[in-house]
Design goal:
mainly alpha, two-stranded antiparallel ribbon
């Protein structure tokens, strides 16, 4: 059985690219408006908490294409990493540990600290109600 610290280069490279693609997709989705299609926004307080969304201009064709491309690549890389022949060489009871080691052997890129060019308005988050005082 393979030692879980000795990952094949192509598997490490695939995992690194998967981290990069996921980080890029996360940042892209963070800056895009909440609605893919143009939407007037809404406010609804009929549920257990109030939900509000501001008007959204929707996503442009380029943004939609980029999101689709990144999601497709993320899927390809996920399949590549999870179905790599290496995993057959690892003892069944050690596969989860080995998969975790691979994920942490190639840390994901740090999130971008710069503010996006066109920050999308974020929906308000529900505030927890104050606990009654005794």
């Amino acid at each position: 059985m393979a030692e879980t610290r000795d990952f094949p280069d192509d598997l490490r490279t695939g995992q690194e690219e998967l981290h990069q693609v996921r980080a890029e997709l996360r940042e892209l989705l963070r800056r895009l408006p909440w609605s893919v299609e143009p939407h007037d926004g809404f406010s609804d307080d009929n549920g257990w908490r109030r939900v509000e969304r501001p008007a959204s201009p929707g996503w442009g064709a380029e943004d939609q294409a980029l999101v689709s491309k990144l999601r497709a690549r993320e899927f390809e890389l996920t399949v590549f990493v999870t179905s790599h022949p290496y995993w057959a060489e690892v003892a069944r009871e050690r596969r989860i540990e080995a998969r975790s080691r691979l994920k942490h052997a190639t840390p994901p890129p740090a999130p971008a600290t710069a503010a996006p060019e066109n920050p999308a308005p974020r929906p308000p988050t529900a505030q927890p109600s104050a606990a009654p005082e005794d």
